What we know:
Blueprint: E1 6-11, H1 15-25, E2 30-36, H2 40-49, E3 54-56, H3 59-63, E4 70-73, H4 80-89, E5 93-97, H5 104-117, E6 121-124, H6 131-141, E7 148-157, H7 171-174, H8 177-193, E8 197-205, E9 217-224, E10 229-235, E11 244-252, E12 255-260, E13 266-270, E14 273-277, H9 284-296, H10 305-324, E15 328-329, H11 330-335
Parallel strand pairs: 1-2, 1-4, 2-3, 4-5, 5-6, 7-10
Antiparallel strand pairs: 7-11, 8-9, 8-15, 9-10, 11-12, 12-13, 13-14
Helix pairs in contact: 1-9, 4-5, 5-10, 6-8, 8-10
Amino acid sequence: MSSPPIGILIVGAGFIADAHMAALAASSRATAVGVVDSDGGRAAAFARSHGGLRYGVDLADALGWSDVGAVIVCTPNDTHRSIGEDVAAAGKHLLVEKPLATTVADARALLDAFAAAGTTVMAAHTHRAYDYGRAVKEAITEAAIGRPTLVRLAILGGWIWPDWNAWVLDPGRSGGHALHNGVHLLDLASWWLGDTPVSVLARGAKQTSSALPIYDYLEMLVTYAGGATAVCEMSRAHRPTSISHRDVLVFGTEGVLSHGWDDEAALLIDDKGTGLVPAQGRNGFAVQLESWLDAIAGGSPMMATADALSAVALGVAVERSIESGEPVGLADVLAGPDREAVQ
């Protein structure tokens, strides 16, 4: 007999919550039962737009609702630890928007809280669930290009933030662009390579305006214990603002994998010639949700907690490297005294 759907509480009624709601609507294993937001009007509007959900402004009260079994957190990055610890204390499972936290210390504290509670926490690094992310990983896992030695990944886009007061432009809230957007690339490259990052050298630019408190353009070079390298370029500064471009190249000892934005199929080049690696063609948020539900049921999550912690450390290392102009060792970030990842 199948189990009844698990009730999900959404925390934070911003635009990303809509994507999670769409995934929930497509799932037979989970259902949204309510939303909490510090802005009561925003919570009410979100609830109405999704069929009349229960809503509130008090997280502690909502965590006590009898039909809540798990929580999806869609709030600003600097709130993840405190909200996550409340979720763990309530004995609920958690899917939290990336990054797990804005500092290594906060990320560790959050993971410790869930380990103590015996419940599941997973960071929502949705690019792992996107078609291109899974297609590239599958090709590498199947040794289609031999041992991967170099990843070159670029995700270039225009301005997506609503205005100059957006919280993502405040490095104290977002952790900086490396943790808010660049972390997608840093995590993907590390996941694809299946290796341990050793050091990061990064450069940031304020392309849109020198008055920006964050860097909206990033170049990030990551070296790995096994000798591989990742070159990552992340932009929210390209014009026109509607532009979207992604380019993936993975070089291996026996071939090259090329994957562009305009076609979810990847081009494989090896000694036999050229061919295509087809993608799965599924919604990334839906794939991610099902992986989290699998983990709640005792399966393996799409993203291990150690990888979520490593992603935070990589983002912090990028911000430090931009500030110092020097390479930053991941061991130092993970072992040394933590501080906010701000420039």
